[in-house]
Amino acid sequence: MSWQAYVDDHLMCEIEGNHLSAAAIIGHDGSIWAQSAAFPAVKPEEITAIMNDFNEPGSLAPTGLYLGGTKYMVIQGEAGAVIRGKKGPGGVTVKKTAMSLIIGVYDEPMTPGQCNMIVERLGDYLLEQGF
């Protein structure tokens, strides 16, 4: 299966009538493996900051998580595994795998829990597969 198919079929899937607004699979080095059409253009320093937070949990909390220039307030996650961010009625979930970052962006009516489930389920699967 291509990386784009993982984005199109698994991350952008429908869950209880809702969809993520954007999603991507990005390598630890910031290279884009696959993304949805609406995914924002991310800057290398944004990916570097996310990777730093996985290595030093809590480092993003004071400044916020930036994705495509949009600032998200960092909320509870799982140290070294998942970073969650909130902005108004939407937010972002980032799941780290052995080789990539799985990123899902959502807006209402999707709930944070629905976004977390979609992103983390694919991330767990890719971890099991060695990616």
Automatic annotation (TrEMBL):
GO molecular function, one term: actin monomer binding
Pfam family, one: Profilin
Protein purpose: Binds to actin and affects the structure of the cytoskeleton. At high concentrations, profilin prevents the polymerization of actin, whereas it enhances it at low concentrations.
InterPro entries listed in its UniProt record: PFN, PFN_euk, PFN_sf, Profilin_CS
Compartment(s): Cytoplasm, Cytoskeleton
Annotated Gene Ontology cellular component terms: cell cortex; cytoskeleton
Organism: Artemisia annua
SUPFAM superfamilies in the record: Profilin (actin-binding protein)
Name used for this protein in its record: Profilin
Gene3D superfamilies in UniProt: Dynein light chain 2a, cytoplasmic
Subunit structure: Occurs in many kinds of cells as a complex with monomeric actin in a 1:1 ratio.
Family: Belongs to the profilin family.
UniProt KW keywords: Actin-binding, Cytoplasm, Cytoskeleton
Superkingdom of source: Eukaryota
Chief site of localization: cytoplasm
